[in-house]
Amino acid sequence: MYKVFINDTPLFFSKSKDVLALDGQVRYVPFTYSSSFQKKVLIDMKTELLCLVDKDVVKAFEYFFKDYKFILAAGGIVENNKNEVLFIFRNNTWDLPKGKVEKGEGVAAAAIREVEEECGLNGPTITNELISTYHTYETNGKKILKRTYWYTMKYEKNHVLIPQIEEGITKVEWINKNQLEVYTDDTYGSIKAVVLDFLVKN
Questions:
Q1: pTM value?
Q2: Which of 81, 91, 119, 162 is the most interior residue, by most CB within 10 Å?
Q3: Domain match, 79 and 130 both
């Protein structure tokens, strides 16, 4: 199954109707291999939750996003010894540190590098794997599909947080776990999914 956030709304892809525990909330739609079907889905999902169904879910997923450029990214939820989690404020929205995986770079290494660069940390340690997320956006007229691999990390040093201003980051803050809802109310759907996975596993 795939779950892709388009304009902050999830679109599901599955092999059958019994994959999602969302009966009554989601409309299952047989997949059609045509551009007109894609356009209709993008319109319909503005008002309802959709799950596209096809026996070959990988083929359907790849066809739907065939006109998108694929980007691989990695990021992390960093936790310190005070039960606090690291958040960044990027482009006027609370977010988690993440970024593009460079050529020849491992995904886990990229996650650590991005956290270091965007927050000014030195040597966070990966402790676990989280979910990966898909989301789309447009830049310079090009449609992008980004898959981000997420990790939990530990950071035990006392360090001055330095936001990476050139990446649109204006604040980096340690947030108490008990206050996460305040910050996730003002973030993206994909980030909410990552935080939920983190809280379930921690």
A1: 0.92
A2: 119
A3: yes
